[in-house]
Amino acid sequence: MSTRQAFAPTPAAAAYVGERFGLAGTALGAEPTARGLCGRIWELTAAGTRHALKELFWDDDQDEQEIRGRVRFETAARAAGVGCPQSLPTVDGDYLCRLPPELGNVYVRLYSWIDGRPLTPADHAAEHAADWLGDCLARLHRLALRDPGAGAPDSRFERVPTADQWQELLDALRAQRVEWADGLERLMPAVGELSELVVPLDRDALVMCHLDLTPANVMRERTGGFVLVDWDNAGPGSADHELAAALMAWHAPDGRARTDRVAATAAAYARAGGPGRVRDLSCFSGYLGTVLNNLYTQASVAIAADAHEEHRELARTKVRQVMANLPSRSALEQVGLSAENR
Ligand SMILES: Nc1ncnc2c1ncn2[C@@H]1O[C@H](COP(=O)(O)OP(=O)(O)OP(=O)(O)O)[C@@H](O)[C@H]1O
Ligand SMILES: [Mg+2]
Q1: Protein residue closest via CA to atom 27 of ligand 1
Q2: Cα–chain center distance at 272
Q3: How remote is the CA of residue 302 from the centroid of ligand 2, in Å?
Q4: CA of 281 relative to ligand 1 center, distance in Å
Q5: Where do the Aminoglycoside phosphotransferase domain residues begin and end (predicted)?
Q6: To 10 degrees, the CA torsion angle through 200, 133, 296, 186?
Q7: How confident is the model at residue 71 (pLDDT cuts 50, 70, 90)?
Q8: What digits encode the pLDDT tens for the residues 118-137?
């Protein structure tokens, strides 16, 4: 896992990005407007028009061909009525742009700017958000896009760390006297039980999915509409699994199910012709794979000697969040039942 070097929003960086993306008169905001685990968003203005410049933290999984597949999906989704930012290409037609060593040697991508704000907890618990979510997912899944260039599904949806790997991690955390190591160890029986639900994807049922449809990746426009951002994880997946994952992320984020909202999203999805179903607990495979792999990765980053302190600190926060909100099997059962009895 290699991390980025330092990126600074200097006039030289703004000019370089402007030249690569064919924009004149570029300037960068002094502070990033937002950051997540994968990147940081900077506001880039060019002759009065705003753009979102994403600085990508991790170099390893960046692949121009995969990105082009995502852009095809995003373009089809936009045509099907899903609000989303537009990915912008360089003058050479690439979406991925590497800054030179003197500007930080990082990958960046450029998107149209969304004039909106992140969702508040009240926004994402609202009834109209539950309806929007079902409708949006159905539009994505109805495309049934099979992208031959998309490659294999990401292994984090199908495979989780083994008991031995967790044990090694716990030993490393103990060696560094990490205070939440005991808490993590106490969760191991639950982690083991949930891990059993993580199963291989049916290769015949793969369609392009967003694969990160969480409230953090949805913005509210000034006009009130919802916009789905962060298509950087999009790839082949299962409509069933993506529906189940979205129901958990939106309506049971703390492991407790809001069954009325689950039913509302499932009903909106069915009304809009969504093909997915939460047939049984194995449909939560992708969600659980993401949660458990995220817990493992973030706990590892938290003690990684080669990670920046900024990343380590964020990783510690994420670990605590995931540990506090791990879903129980009965919460999954409740969500599954409410989705099917919509
Ligand atoms: N095109 C855009 N215009 C304006 N703001 C944006 C745009 N895209 C993203 N944002 C804001 O920046 C935040 C981070 O962007 P994004 O989700 O793409 O980054 P990330 O690091 O990949 O996050 P994650 O941890 O979810 O993977 C978003 O939650 C959103 O609030
Ligand atoms: Mg995001």
Answers
A1: 38
A2: 23
A3: 20
A4: 30
A5: 64-271
A6: -100
A7: very high
A8: 999 899 888 999 999 999 99
Residue 2 clears pLDDT 50, i.e. is over it: no
Distance, CA 143 to ligand 2 centroid (Å)?
Answer: 23
205-224: pLDDT as tens digits: 999 999 999 999 999 999 88
Please give the distance of CA 157 from its chain centroid, rounded to a whole number.
12
Where residue 5 falls among pLDDT bands split at 50, 70, 90?
A: low
Instruction: Check if 66 has its Cβ closer than 6 Å to any atom of ligand 1.
Output: no
- Sign of the CA dihedral with 281 first, then 282, 283, and 288 last: positive
Q: How far is CA 8 from the centre of its chain?
A: 25
State both tokens at 103: 């500007």
**pLDDT one-digit tens code per residue, 130-177:** 999 999 999 999 999 998 777 889 999 999 999 999 999 999 999 999
C-alpha 232 – ligand 1 centre gap (Å): 10
Question: Is the distance from the beta carbon of residue 290 to the nearest atom of ligand 1 less than 6 Å?
Answer: no
Nearest ligand to the C-alpha atom of residue 115: 1
**By alpha-carbon position, which residue is closest to atom 17 of ligand 1?**
230
CATH of 121-340 among 3.40.50.10770, 3.40.50.300, 3.90.1200.10, 3.90.79.10: 3.90.1200.10
State the ligand closest to the CA atom of 314. Answer: 1
Residue nearest to atom 26 of ligand 1 (CA): 36
pLDDT of residue 1 exceeding 50: no
Sign of torsion over alpha carbons 51, 125, 260, 328: positive
Q: How far is the CA of 35 from the centre of ligand 1 (A)?
A: 7
Delimit the domains of the chain by residue range: 11-113, 121-340
